[in-house]
Amino acid sequence: MQQVGSLVRSLLAETPGVSLVSFRTIPAQVFYSPPPPPPPPKATEKAVENLSGAAKLLALERKPEAPPPVVKPVALQKTIYKHGVEITVRGNYPQLVSYMEKLQKYPKRVFWSEAKVTAQSYPVSVLRIVIFTLSDQALASLE
User: Is residue 27 in a domain?
Assistant: First the structure.
C-alpha cells in the first residue's frame, strides 16, 4: 500500500487547501473469477455397447471428430482481485473538484468509486472516496 500512500500524498501536495482526514485499507476482494471448466464429455463406449450389430460396426469404424479447441483470452482464465483504500479529505468544493481531476488524470490504472461529498461548516466540505486497482495477485499492493 506504499504506492497508494505516495499517490495520496502527491495529490495532496499538488492541491493546496485539501487535507487528509483518514486513510483506511480495504481487504482485497475477488472482482472476477473464471467460470468452472465444462464437465468432461460422456464416454461413447457405453453407447456403442448398447447398439445392435451393424450400427455397432459403423460406430466403431467412424472415429469421433474432436471439436476444435476453444481458446480463451488469458485474462479470462485468471481470478482478478480488487485492492482498495478509503480516504477522506477536507477542503472547499472547488479544491475537492481539483483533487478529483488530478486523481482522474493519474497515468497509472487507478479507479475510484463511492465518492461522497458532505458539507460541514461553509465553505468546508469533506470528500470520502474509495480508490482501487485491479490485479491478478491476491496480495498485490496498489500501484
Answer: yes
Beta-bridge partner residues of 119: 125
| CATH number of the domain encompassing residue 130 | 3.30.70.60
Domain that holds residue 79: 2-33+74-135
Number of domains in the chain: 1
**Which three cell numbers mark 109?**
490504472
Instruction: Give one DSSP letter per residue of 41-104, joined into a string.
Output: PPPSHHHHHTS-HHHHHHHHHSPPPPPPPPPPPGGGGS-EEEEEEEEEEEEEHHHHHHHHHHHH
Query: Residue 7: enclosing H or E segment and its boundaries?
Result: helix 2-14
What count of other Cβ atoms lies within 10 Å of the Cβ of residue 135?
Answer: 19
The SS3 call for residue 128 is strand
pLDDT in tens, 30-81: 999 988 877 776 655 555 555 566 555 565 566 556 677 776 665 568 899 9
User: How far is it, in rounded angstroms, from Cα 70 to Cα 38?
Assistant: 11
User: Does a structural domain hold residue 54?
Assistant: no
Cα-Cα-Cα-Cα dihedral sign, residues 42, 44, 45, 48: positive
Query: Is residue 122 in some structural domain?
Result: yes
